Amino acid sequence: SQTIHQWPATLVQPVGSPLSLECTVEGTSNPNLYWYRQAAGRGLQLLFYSIGIGQISSEVPQNLSASRPQDRQFILSSKKLLLSDSGFYLCAWSASSGGATDTQYFGPGTRLTVL
Amino acid sequence: AQTVTQSQPEMSVQEAETVTLSCTYDTSESNYYLFWYKQPPSRQMILVIRQEAYKQQNATENRFSVNFQKAAKSFSLKISDSQLGDTAMYFCASRPSGSARQLTFGSGTQLTVLP
Predict the structure, then answer these.
(1) Which 8-state DSSP code applies to residue A50?
(2) Residue A60's pLDDT is what?
(3) Do B99 and A109 touch (CB under 8 A)?
(4) What is the DSSP string of chain B?
(5) Which of A61, A114, B31, B104 is the most buried (most CB within 10 A)?
(6) Is B100 close to A51, i.e. CB distance below 8 A?
(7) Residues of chain A contacting B, Cβ within 8 Å
């Protein structure tokens, strides 16, 4: 079966510091990968998605970037964090074949607090 | 563009009773999928149920079922025999058909199951 991991689970960082959040998927090949952000008490906002190694699409202009160095690894980064980057970050994966199998499954999330 | 609206920010239900959560959506896509996800206090997003818009039959998963009214663009979730573990934030979401398409989420309904 497929599993998705995220780390760290919790992170507290000062304003202006760099960021690296990691997401890995097991049990599947060539997944579509997604990064979402959830502000407190709100729904999810798609930040980035990737259909393959090195292929990243950005949905919202922002202070963040994403990379996919390996098939099942997705990294969210920032060179200098802003207060507004605080939130709950969720990684998700879906099968690349499309159709009903394209349901997105989420990881456990990372709670980021920027002080 | 797609929009998803959940008009009930909070709801409560007695244990073992039935509750219905409302969701309306708008889309210009001819084919799409609809989802209900739950987010318990752990904040991991968990798929509850999925509906393909081209299927007339309402989806069911054990105690969870949907009432899909395509013409009215309504997609409500019914939870039967509510259990304490059903306490969570519930999000309605939609996605156009096709691989790696964006999920659009509603703002969520906080459901509390009372003992």
Answers:
(1) E
(2) 79
(3) no
(4) --EEE---SEEEEETT--EEE--EEE---SSEEEEEEEE-TT---EEEEEEETT--SPPEETTEEEEEETTTTEEEEEE-S--GGG-EEEEEEEEESSTTPPPEE---EEEEEE-
(5) B104
(6) yes
(7) 32, 34, 38, 41-44, 46, 49, 51, 59, 88, 90, 92, 94, 96-100, 102-109, 111
Residue A91, Cβ neighbours under 10 Å: how many? 26
B110: nearest Cα among B87, B82, B76, B92: B87
- Residue to mutate among A56, A102, A111, with most B CBs inside 10 A, is A102
The pLDDT tens digits for B93-105 are 998 887 667 889 9
Give the other-Cβ count within 10 Å of B76's Cβ.
17
Find the residue in A nearest to B99 (Cα): A98
Res A61: pLDDT: 67
